[in-house]
Each structure stands twice: as structure tokens, then as C-alpha cells.
Amino acid sequence: MSASDRFAACAAALLLAVVVPAHCAVAADPAPVPQRIVRVDTPATLRAAVQAAAPGDAIVLAPGVYLMDGDVSVVTPGTASAPIAMRAETARASLLRFATTGVPLEGFRVRAAWWRFEGLDIEGACASDSDCEHAFHLAGDADHVVIRDNRIRDFNAQIKSNGLMVGTAPAFPDDVLIERNWLYDTRPRQTSNPVTKLDVVGGRRWVVRANTIFDFHKQAGDGISYGLFLKGNSRQGLVERNLVRCNLHDGSGTTIGLSFGGGGTGTPYCEEQNCEVEHRGGIMRNNLVMDCSDVGIYLNRAAESHVHHNTLYATWGIDVRFPTSSADLRNNLLGGTIRNRDGAISTSAGNVTGVTPAQFAAWFVDPANADFSLLDGSAVVDQGVAAPLVTDDFCGVGRLDGAPDVGALEYGPGPACTLDMGGGTPYDRIFRAGFE
Q1: Count H helices, E strands: the chain?
Q2: Is 293 within the bounds of a domain?
């Protein structure tokens, strides 16, 4: 099987949620060995285990449906050497169905550091969409949290983070990892509340890697929704190897893929109460962004941004906006344009812009269905410029030949989807249920 064929098989497995071929499988990074395993099988025992948690605990959920009435407060910290974990005994066989009536639901209200949430299936089931706000709400001292390998659907913002007073000063979650999750909605949200699948206000050094984000729309209020944003004077975020399909099943609303800055932040909510820059020093690389009714990447008051090796299909392109925005744009492949708006500045090199649907169809097998295996690589293969911040691609394939390919994928004779951080691979815990 050629490298391009291997990539096509991996991509198809991701998008159709079939069993992934063996050459796509890679090992997840090892978690610390738990000091105590606490097994739970009901909402009551789950809540009790969280309340009594101690560093080194692993709270293991038996398969089944957990009807969660209201939030779960997470206030006891783990440590670097003994984090506290919550995971399903069998990946995504434990369904946590959160609901509430008349009050905002925040799911897991995480206020403590060094927690890991892995392998869960989480669903919002409120009678009113405005009530089901979050599956996870991180705030204050929730540093070093890992949210990985979960399937999370039907919330306004599946994952939310912001500041909280801790003692006499506000604190914002730092060093959080969001990896290999599915974040999506099964229908448009009937709410005027903000709809963004990952909504981060403040915080530093977040890593958002290899997630699948799709079908996020709202049909009230301003009608604008995002796949994800980092804003609120946040810093040094890394957004890489994510697959974002804004309108996979439904084309309604105004949808934007990835953003540093989002729609902006009110001064009281920004870190240091300074919103002059919404995000500083962020990197977006090796992402596939598709089917957005607005831009695929939006930089709003985003200083010192690096946007390298992304592929944007069926979007308006990349917007860099407002005087405090500055960006280095390299080796991106996109339909649509790159625009500097309202005083923003950027430098561009190696980008291929304005690619028409007909050109995409001539270059790749089936780009409308996210099959970017090559038909004609003359416009992209070896056509990029040097990009030292990018050493591999969407699948984790190394860019090793000194002549990088334009876009999120590196084509060549090497293996595809075999490295331990490759986007597009469900690893040894496979999503089998498909898009719902």
C-alpha cells in the first residue's frame, strides 16, 4: 500500500468511524500507575468517589448509563506524580447523561489541578438548550488537567475555561491538554447563548491536539458559532492536528473553524483585566478545517501568531484583524483568501490561496469528503518554504526531506498514521458508533 493509500484509509476510518486499519494504530502515552482504584457503577457512587478523591486515585466507571442530575464539583487536587483520574472501564461504554431544569448546567466543575478525564461518553440532555452549558467547566486552579479520548455532545460549550478568584487574586487554568476528543452537536442549538465547542478565556500553554470537532450551530441570538477559540489575554496556545468540519450535516448559521481571539472578551474577564491582546504567541499547525460558512481561521487581536501548514477547504480563508494582531502565515493551502483587516499585519510565505473547488477536485481524490490523497501533487508537493515550528504533519508523519509540502499533509514514501501523536487515528480505543 502506498503512503497516499495509507493516508486515505486512515482518513476514511476517522471520518466514517469504522475500525481503523492496523497500520494506523499507535500507542497512547502511559498514565501514572494509580495508587488506588475506586470502582463506581451509579451516579451516587461516582459523586461519592469524586468527593472522597485523593492523589493517585483512579475512579473507574463500569459500563452503563449514568443519569446525572446537576453538576459534579471537583475540588481536591492531585499532584504531578499522583494525578487523579476518571476513566471508563471500557472506552466510551459509560454514558454520562447530564440534565437539569431551569438552572445552567456545567457538568464537571473542575477547580483543582492534576485531574485526567479519559474514555467517557458525555451527553447533554436538558429540556432547554440554554440550560446545558458545559460538560466540563475549568476555572481557577484547574492547572495540568487532561481531557482525552472522550465523546462529548449537545452542550453550548462542551469545554469551558475562565478565571476565578483564588484568595485575593484571580487564577486561570494553565497547562491543560485537550486531546483526541469528539466534540459535536446532534442538532443546531436553540439558544442565544454562546456556542463554541472549546471556549477558553485566559490561561497559558494550552495544547489542543488531534480532536474531531463538527456540527456546531446555533439558531438564535447572533447565529455565530465557533469550533474553538482561545481568548481573554491567553498565551502560548498550541492548536494542532485537529479535524474541524463546521457544517458536516447541517449548513445553517454562521460558523468559524479555529480562532485565537474569538469574538472578543469583556475587560473584567480577561487575564490581568487587559484585553488589548486576546491571545499572544499562539501556534496553529497541521489542522484540517472544512465546510465553514465564514473563515476557517480567525485571528482577532492575536499577537505574534504562527499559522503554518493548515488545509482549509470550503471556507472563506484566513482573517487577521485589528491593530494588535500580527501573524506569520506559512505553507497553508486554502480556498478563499488571506485578509489583513482593520490595521492588522501579517507576513506570508509558501501559501497557496484561492484554490477553487475544481482545482481541489483535480488535485485530490475526494476533498469534499476529506479524502486528500493525491491525484496531482504539482501545486503542493515540495512547494513549501522552511517552517521550523513544524516537524511533522496532521498524521504525525515527519517532514524530513527539507522540502515541505503545502498544507496539513506531507506526502511521500514513509508510513502514515503511525506516530504516537497523529491526528486522524483513534488509537487503541476506537470510536465505533459513528456520527450521530
Answers
A1: 3, 39
A2: yes
Domain assignment of residue 316, yes or no:
yes
Domain presence at residue 139 = no
Q: Provide the domain count of the chain.
A: 1
Distance between CA atoms of 361 and 403, rounded to whole angstroms?
Answer: 24
CA distances from 363 to 285, 333, 379, 395, 409 (A): 21, 12, 8, 19, 13
- How does pLDDT run across 60-79, given as a tens digit for each residue? 999 999 999 999 999 999 99
Residue 55 cell numbers, joined: 492523589
Are the CB atoms for 179 and 148 separated by under 8 Å? yes
- Per-residue pLDDT of 85-97, as tens digits, reads 999 999 999 999 9
Q: What angle do CA 268, 270, 271 make, to 5 degrees?
A: 120
Q: What is the largest CA-CA distance in the chain?
A: 61
Report which secondary-structure segment, H or E, holds 12: helix 3-16
Q: What is the DSSP string of 340-381?
A: EETT-EEEEES-B----HHHHHHHEEEGGGTEEEES--TTTT
Task: Give 62's DSSP letter.
Answer: P
19-28, 33-42, 65-74, 100-109: segment of lowest average pLDDT: 19-28
Going by C-beta distance under 8 Å and a sequence separation of 6 or more, which residues neighbour residue 183?
152, 153, 158, 159, 197, 198, 211, 212, 213, 214, 216
The three cell numbers of residue 333 are 493551502
> Is pLDDT above 70 for 398?
yes
* Whether the Cβ atoms of residue 179 and residue 211 lie closer than 8 Å to each other: yes
Measured CA to CA, the distance from residue 328 to residue 382 in angstroms comes to 20
**Domain range holding 175?**
3-28+149-374
Segment 252-279, tens digit of pLDDT = 889 999 999 999 999 999 999 999 999 9
For 44, the enclosing helix (H) or strand (E) is helix 43-51
Cell numbers at 63, concatenated:
459500563
| CB proximity list for 116: less than 8 A, separation 6 or greater | 31, 83, 84, 85, 86, 87, 145, 146, 147, 148
User: CB-side exposure of 359: number of CA atoms within 13 Å?
Assistant: 15
- Is 316 in contact with 337 (CB distance < 8 Å)? yes
Decide if 126 is inside a domain: no
